[in-house]
Amino acid sequence: MSSAQLRHENGATTTTKPKPNPITGTEIAAEFSHHDLTVARINNGSFGSCPASIISAQQQWQLQFLQQPDYFYFNTLKPSMLKSRTLIQSLVNAENVDEISIVDNATTAVAIVLQHVTRSFFSSDFRPGDAAVMLHYAYGSVKKSVQAYVARAGGTVIEVHLPFPLSSNEEIITEFDKALKMGKTNGARIRLAVIDHITSMPSVVIPVKELVQMCRNEGVDVIFVDGAHAIGNVEVDMRDIGADFYTSNLHKWFFSPPSAAFLYCKKSDKVSDLHHPVVSVEYGNGLAIESGWIGTRDYSAQLVIPEVLELFVNRFEGGIEGIRRRNHDKVVEMAEMLVKAWGTELGTPPEMCSSMAMVGMPACLGISSFSDALKLRTHLRVTFKIEVPIYYRAAPTLEGKVNPITGYARISHQVYNTIEDYCRFRDAIIKLVNDAFTCAVLSN
C-alpha cells in the first residue's frame, strides 16, 4: 500500500494527492541545512534526522500548548493524538486504531511488553524455568531489559547466536529453530520470543514473518518484534507479520522529531493487563490512552506525525516506500563502491540490507576488540569529520583464515546524503592504510 493511501477501519482507502512538483535536491539540502555540513554523516541509523519543515511544525504544536495549556489539554491533545495513531494504523496495516499506542521510543515499548510478561511469572501463569528466546544481536537495552524483567522473574533466557557475515535467511532460520527446540527441553515452555526486524549491530534484515510463524507452530505465548529501525526502512505490515506486539521508532527513518515510536498490540486477551510504566490519571483506560498522557511534558513530537507525511514525505515520488527503495539501492551502491576500493566484502548480500549496510574494513587496520572499533570511530570523527559506527567481529569465528576481516562499518543512506560523504570515507581509510596506521597507535 502506498504511503499516500490510508486504509480506514471500514476497509475504505483514502488517497492523498501527491505533490505536483516532487522535491528537488536543492530543497532537500535546505531541509537539512541545520546539520553540521562539515561532517560526512553516514550514520542516520543511530539517531535519525528531522527536516526543517517538521521542526517548524513541531514548534507550532509547542506554542499551542504554551499559549493556553488548559484548553490544549482538554480540547486538543486527545483528538490530535488519535489523528497520529490513526495515521500510523494506516501506514502499518493494523486492524484497529486501538491496537496502536504512541510512546517515546522502542525502549519504552520493550518495558511495557516485558513488564506485562513479568506479571505472568508472578501470577503463576508462567513457571520458573520457562524460556524467553531472543537474538544474540538484539539491541543492548533490549537484552538488559530481558535480564531485568524476565530473568529476575525466574525465566530462562536463550540467545540465538547467528553467524556473521551472513549469506542467506536460511542460516538465521536454522539457528532460530535450534533455540526453539532448546527452550522446550525438560518440559519447559517458551513464553516469550523477542525478534528484531532489523538488527542494529551488525545490521541485518531478519525474516520476521518466517520466525513469527515458527514461534506460532511451537506454541510460544508472546511474540514481540523489535522493529526499532523498521518504519521508513523496510515494509511494515502488522497483519502480514502476525506478531502479538511490534514496535518501531518514528524518529529514526520516518523523519519525526525525537522522540516518537509506536507500539502495536494485537487485540486479544493477552493485552488485558498491559500498562504504561508511568502511572498517571489515565491508568486503566487502555494502553493507548494511558500513553497519551503520562503527565505534563512535551508531546509535540508525537502530535506532528501527520505533518511529517504531508509536509515532507509526500513530496517524494512514491512517498515513504519510494524513499526507502531509493535509500536501499543507494546504500548498496555505496557499499559496493567501498568494498571494491578496499578489497574487502559486504557483511550480507544486498537483499539482507535495509537502508544500512555492513562494509568490511581492511584487515591491516588491526581492529582487534570492541574498544578498537570505538577508538577508530572516534578517530574518524575527530580527524576526518566522518560519523560512522564500527562493528568488531569477535575472533572465535575466524579460525583458519589468513588476514581475516575483523571490522565492519555500518553505513546508512538517508535522503540528505551525497556521494561525497562516502567518497570521503573511502579516501580516509585508503589514507590510513597507506600510512600504515593500526588501531594500536590510538591512545586509550
UniProtKB/TrEMBL annotation:
<feature type="compositionally biased region" description="Low complexity">
    <location>
        <begin position="11"/>
        <end position="25"/>
    </location>
</feature>
<dbReference type="InterPro" id="IPR000192">
    <property type="entry name" value="Aminotrans_V_dom"/>
</dbReference>
<protein>
    <submittedName>
        <fullName>L-cysteine desulfhydrase, chloroplastic</fullName>
    </submittedName>
</protein>
<feature type="compositionally biased region" description="Basic and acidic residues">
    <location>
        <begin position="1"/>
        <end position="10"/>
    </location>
</feature>
<keyword id="KW-0663">Pyridoxal phosphate</keyword>
<dbReference type="Pfam" id="PF00266">
    <property type="entry name" value="Aminotran_5"/>
</dbReference>
<feature type="domain" description="Aminotransferase class V">
    <location>
        <begin position="81"/>
        <end position="268"/>
    </location>
</feature>
<dbReference type="InterPro" id="IPR015421">
    <property type="entry name" value="PyrdxlP-dep_Trfase_major"/>
</dbReference>
<dbReference type="InterPro" id="IPR015424">
    <property type="entry name" value="PyrdxlP-dep_Trfase"/>
</dbReference>
<feature type="region of interest" description="Disordered">
    <location>
        <begin position="1"/>
        <end position="25"/>
    </location>
</feature>
